[in-house]
Amino acid sequence: MNTQKKLLVLLDGSERALDSVHYVASVRSFSSMTVVVLLNVSAQVPQSYLDLERKPGSPDDGTGISSWVAHQEKKRIDYMRRAEQILKDSGISAVEIRVRKIVRGVARDILVEAKEQYSAVVLTRRGMGLLAGLPVGSVANKLLQKMSFSPIILAAPNVRSDRLLIAVDGSADSLRAVSFAVDMLGEGQHVGLIHVMRNMPGLDFMMTDADVEKAKAMIEDQFVKIREQLVQKGLRPEDVTSKIVEGSISRAGSILDEAIAAQYDTIVLGRKGLSEISDFSMGRVSTKIVQLAETFAVWLV
Known about the structure:
By secondary structure, the protein is an alpha/beta fold. It contains nine helices and ten strands. The protein has two domains: about 5-155, HUPs (Rossmann fold), CATH 3.40.50; about 165-300, HUPs (Rossmann fold, 3-Layer(aba) Sandwich), CATH 3.40.50. The protein has helices spanning about 20-25, 45-50, 65-90, 105-115, 140-145, 170-185, 210-230, 250-260, 285-290; strands at about 5-10, 35-40, 95-100, 120-125, 150-155, 165, 190-195, 240-245, 265-270, 295-300.
């Protein structure tokens, strides 16, 4: 992890996108961020529109289009200032606003910016169309598939981050998710650790009782180490709990069931688990969580 903690928050001018800002403001430990960058990537007004002002016989009086452009720019800046103030009111003092014109395409331009050593990129599932006419969430979908080099934080409406559920399965991505969470969290938060074991009778990969006990022991060891790391970051021992779910038919379903039952706000998981295919940027479990957990924030690492 970078010693310098930087968040990139994507905004498109919509009220829905401000969910990302409110979420970041709600995470107590984010107040220690070195800087939070608010990024807006927008389309330029076509030059042909501006040229209308100069054409004889144009219905525009020479000022209408320019006035409209200036008004849109003011709205964009006011919106970004509003987002900046939300963060500053929460205690995040270092906030930087960046407003960019589209060069390669919305998603590609965001990907270029995201490679600038950010700890994570924050966005909403929907509302990231950024341009009228694009399918809702199309940019967000592209970023989820292409941004494998950076953790992604998906915000949700009216969700804060006091209670986080971290999925642990022993895979490399899962361990990275745990490391990321430990690095980003601090005192005042509650963390639940969950491991889901599939053990369905009649299938070839069925585990014996001995296999189950061995796997449980390994996971319990991981739980102990993770708990120690979180306590060192300021969490109270009683605010770190753990649970192993056995005999699950659906890992994603069991994680969601626990998140709902225990009233967690945020789900943290690796992009791919032990059983996922390496050729895909997102695994089956993480894909299902993103699709189904619409009322939760999701951290994908």
